[in-house]
Amino acid sequence: MRILHVEGGRHLYGGSYQVLHLLRGLAARGHENLLACPAGCALAEAAAPVARVYGLRMRGDLDLPMVTRLRRLIRASRPDLVHLHSRIGADVMGGIAARLSGVPVIHTRRVDNPEPRWLVALKYRLFDRVVAISEGIRDVLLAEGLPAEKLRVVRSAVDYATYARPCARASIAARLGVPEDALLIGVVAQLIQRKGHADLIEALPPLMDRYPGLQVLFFGKGPIADALDAQIDRKGLTARVRLLGFRDDLAEIMPCLDLLVHPARMEGLGVSLLQAASAGVPIVASRVGGIPEAVRDGENGLLVPPGDIAALRAALEALLSDPERRRRLGAGGQALMAREFSIDAMVNGNLAVYRELSREAARRSGPG
């Protein structure tokens, strides 16, 4: 089967990593991958061994000429189907291009933020199938009127073995500029409002007083970086709370965290949660969106109401004060990831949707 994948993200994290896992899995099963993505993006280089890569101009939701560029590519490459992996204009423009070309089209929905029912009715008419990466996203789409027969759930996956490694404590502490015996909280998320970084900063001061070795590290980039720096400074936390930007060594850093915190106000699933659980790191996260599928309360972490500073602080205190409980939750996370979030399951789930659409296309074309 020849699949044209369209991904508009420029950085290799979150959804783009899921696309890379899928490309590798499909190539290993003998399928032919074509990838349209922004020219020069990190995914283009990483995917080159397993896909024929087409670097395109992708300028966002209002990039109407993207329809022409994608339609031209579809006509030249003749894929069996088109799989749209992101928004940023790739969903609508890609859906229009595939429809005009008469090629079956799938859209993967990775976020749980609500859309107006009129927009859902209009936009999702473009797609033959919509794949939600969590039950939480499925529920949002159903509530907004998406027909159930068009919707499938294929959970995001994690490369478990990449993160399930020992912690090289001395070298990682030196790399991060923290004491070797520091108690480390990590937050791995884009620096955008809905990820809840500001809620964690509000919760921290009493904990900093109680745990002198506590260090909090934010990994990621985004538009609210300056606002977070200012908030950290106002709270007097600059020596122990730092923004470290995007890192390509998270697989080495994760096993050395004592706790991963994800206080998101909205979240489709949360790839960093899967990574942390694979590394044996206990998690404190919000009970919102698809997060409860990745973080089972009492099994691999603790869940709190989104935006509840007092509950967030109490959950952090409960785990910071109890190393044995952290160890048990970390082991529970590794077992959960190995059991339910494998790359094979994600690849096979998407393949099942592809085959379903191929059978439908064959029936429509009929004999002869």
TrEMBL record:
One of its GO terms (biological process) is carbohydrate derivative metabolic process. Pfam families: Glyco_transf_4 (PF13439), Glycos_transf_1 (PF00534). The keyword Oxidoreductase does not apply. The lineage of its organism: Bacteria, Pseudomonadati, Pseudomonadota, Gammaproteobacteria, Chromatiales. Keywords: Transferase. Residues 172-333 form the Glycosyl transferase family domain. It comes from Thiocapsa roseopersicina. SUPFAM superfamilies: UDP-Glycosyltransferase/glycogen phosphorylase (SSF53756). Residues 14-159 form the Glycosyltransferase subfamily 4-like N-terminal domain. GO terms for molecular function: glycosyltransferase activity. This is Glycosyltransferase involved in cell wall bisynthesis.
